[in-house]
Amino acid sequence: MTTVWTVDAEHPAPGDLAEAARLLAAGNLVAFPTETVYGLGANALSMEAIDRLYAAKGRPRANPLIVHVADPESAQNLCDSWPDSAELLAQAFWPGPLTLVLPHGGKIHSGVTAGGDTVALRVPAHPVALALLRAAGIPVAAPSANPSGFISPTLPDHVLQGLGGKIAGLVSAGPCERGVESTVIDLSGSQPVLLRPGPLTPEEIAHVLGIPPEKLLISAATGMEGPEKSPGRMGRHYAPKAQVVCVASSGEAQSWCDRWTREGKRHVWLALEPGPGSILLPNTPPGALHSIYKTLHKIDRDGYNHVVAVLPPAEGRWLAFRDRLLRASLSQ
Ligand code: AMP
Ligand code: MG
């Protein structure tokens, strides 16, 4: 059975989180809201809790976890070195949708890091996440609260649909503002590398680091040029049950829709501009990111089998949205 605690998103009463924090610290799995997506929390100091987490999600052990902490000092305590770049980014963006990858020097056990030398760390900005982390008093490993490979949850119902009955609890506090996972930056090498595009754009990161945007290396797994740095990242991810096709122009999107109409297949055009048969997403990067997973969940629930989307321009501010569309479109 999964216990659900419904709390105020802005001002959670400490008493409302006490039971969730206790269960979490004791090694149970508790889902909670962050400003990106709902996370599935496990005590990062407990090997048993981490085993439970991988099992509940069906997540491959080679895919390392992001450790969530309440403040930058707690993050520093879990890594071996804290370069100036980490200090600059933490000061600019924490609490917020940014994950930093740093050498851990043995300060966290290998089950969390997939056996690697680095740990991924984040201070989330959601008041409920912060209050829960403080109350639990432990670092919390928290991947998205969904079965591995499927769409991340941005509403409490999404968590229950995917993991209800399999986890001890869910702290329920409405929708997640950002709507996609954090931007991940690797600071463990000689140059910073963007491992996963997210709500913070490459331009924003480069600006704070005081480097030209083109100096920020971009990992090959994002679909852009660059070296592969992160272990365990899989191609298909964040995917709905429906088949998603990404195209370059509205003409191509229309051809797919015509073909599916001829074949009698339930389909939809996921669009940034109004058009026939389309579901409209807000035509700004933050708006489109906020809505993408919620909309893909709804497309599945409404029984559409085919989705076509026109990719936005390959520029920094649209990178995360392109990345999520492309990942949703890859076949298993
Ligand atoms: P999620 O699946 O949303 O929990 O995201 C975790 C992401 O962070 C994945 O892309 C991981 O590969 C990445 N990640 C976590 N830990 C590390 C690490 N130590 N080094 C590089 N990437 C990491
Ligand atoms: Mg995930």
3D structure, described in words:
The protein has 332 residues and is of the alpha/beta class. It has two domains: 216 residues, DHBP synthase; 87 residues, Rossmann fold, CATH 3.40.50. Helix 1 crosses helix 6. The protein is globular. The relative contact order is 0.15. About 4% of the residues have low confidence. The structure holds adenosine monophosphate and magnesium ion (MG).
Protein topology:
Blueprint lengths: L2 E4 L7 H12 L4 E3 L6 E5 L3 H11 L8 E3 L3 H5 L7 H10 L4 E6 L6 H4 L4 E5 L4 H10 L3 E2 L14 H8 L5 E4 L10 E4 L6 E4 L5 H8 L7 E2 L24 E5 L2 H13 L4 E5 L6 E3 L4 H17 L4 E5 L8 H11 L3
Parallel strand pairs: 1-8, 2-8, 4-6, 5-9, 10-11, 12-15, 13-14, 13-15
Antiparallel strand pairs: 2-3, 3-7, 4-7, 5-6, 9-10
Helix pairs in contact: 1-6
The structure holds adenosine monophosphate (AMP) and magnesium ion.
